[in-house]
Amino acid sequence: MKEKISVIVPVYGVEKVLGRCVESILAQTYENLEIILVDDGSPDACPALCDGYAEKYPHIRCVHKKNGGLTSAWKEGVRHAEGTLLGFVDSDDWIDPDMYERLEKALTKADADMAMAGLVFDYADPGYPPRRETNRMEKEFYDREGLIRLFPVLLNDGSFIGRTVQPSRVTKLFRRELVERNLELWDDRVTVGEDLQMVFAAVLDAQKVCAVPDFYPYHYWYNMSSMTGGHDPDYLQKIKLLRERMETISDKKHVFDFRPQIRNDFLSLAVMAVKNEIWRNRRDPFKKVLMNVRSMCGDESVQEALKNHTMDRIGLSVKLYIFMMKRRMALGCYVTTKVFFTFYYRIFSHLE
């Protein structure tokens, strides 16, 4: 019999779409599979829905816990899983029927520790076409020597958000031991880049990884309203925590100096933080937004990254942001962001 796959599903506040997610996992063509539904203290009907699935299907188990966030939920699922292989699906997304069959086949054939696929961003608004995302890896298989050769560009290849390995845990199938040995390194407090800290540590430990080319079985549900209304005033502090945790993982693994790449990744996210403040902050008046942007640009960690980054493959627009942020030109950042996103969403929404 093939190895058992445990699919871990953190559940919180998704009573309207939980069924779509669970049914897609139940429809998997891979037969030796269990589903772990982790109710992370959800305040809606999700706890009862999870219990109902567990009562109806013998290969579904439900775990109830106090709310602790996404990372704590999937870590709790790992502790209850019985499978030698682990997969993860977020409860507002869904997967194609052959996802785990093809990932397991590739992993077994390569005797790998991790198998990877791509994902599709499916937008709630039908006016926005689906968008695919996958790894920037050139080969389908990497042994340990091949992985080590990837280390200089693993987190940043010199471009904006230039991650060679796509960081989502949900597009991957892991050998259990690869996850278990790193549980304590994955900080529950991280709420931006949760998957990045996980996949980063796992790749550093892996002896072999493989990718299924041109395969996009994971569907990430994207509500466009969150793109314009999801302002996060704490985003900068959250990415500073992510940087700290990534540096801790790099130091503990001690296989390569990833700090320059981590700095580059942090700066990319800092640019996005400025854009987030300008485009999505509908609460504060204009002058307060400018004050917030000026404060963000002047943050000690941001200024250090602006002065010492090593990204040499960035486009003109990113260079402009870096120039303005380094000089704390809040008004310039504001005007550039408003103009760019106004035209971007106008064009994007009319694509067919």
Our measurement of the CA-to-CA distance between the termini, rounded to an integer number of angstroms, reads: 45 Å
Strand content: 5-15%
**Ranges with pLDDT <50 over ≥5 residues?**
none
Number of discrete domains = 2
CATH superfamily of the largest domain: Spore Coat Polysaccharide Biosynthesis Protein SpsA, Chain A
Q: Which structural class do you get from the secondary structure elements?
A: alpha/beta
Q: What is the oligomer described by this structure?
A: single chain
* Backbone CA Rg: 21 Å
Which secondary structure elements does this structure contain, and how are they paired or packed?
Layout: E1 5-11, H1 18-26, E2 33-40, H2 46-56, E3 60-65, H3 70-80, E4 85-88, E5 94-95, H4 99-110, E6 114-116, E7 119-123, E8 131-133, E9 141-142, H5 144-150, E10 172-175, H6 176-180, H7 194-205, E11 209-211, E12 218-222, H8 224-229, H9 235-253, H10 259-280, H11 286-297, H12 300-308, H13 316-326, H14 330-348
Parallel strand pairs: 1-2, 1-4, 2-3, 6-11, 7-12
Antiparallel strand pairs: 4-10, 5-12, 6-10, 7-8, 9-11
Give structural notes.
By secondary structure, this protein is an alpha/beta fold. The chain has 2 domains: 5-139 and 166-194 and 211-222, Spore Coat Polysaccharide Biosynthesis Protein SpsA, Chain A (Alpha-Beta Complex), CATH 3.90.550; 227-348, no CATH class. Helix content is 47%, strand content 15%. It has an 8-stranded mixed β-sheet, sandwiched between helices. Strands 5-12-7-8 form a 4-stranded mixed β-sheet. Helix 1 links the parallel strand 1 and strand 2. The protein is globular, with a radius of gyration of 21 Å. The chain starts with a strand and ends with a helix. The mean pLDDT is 94.
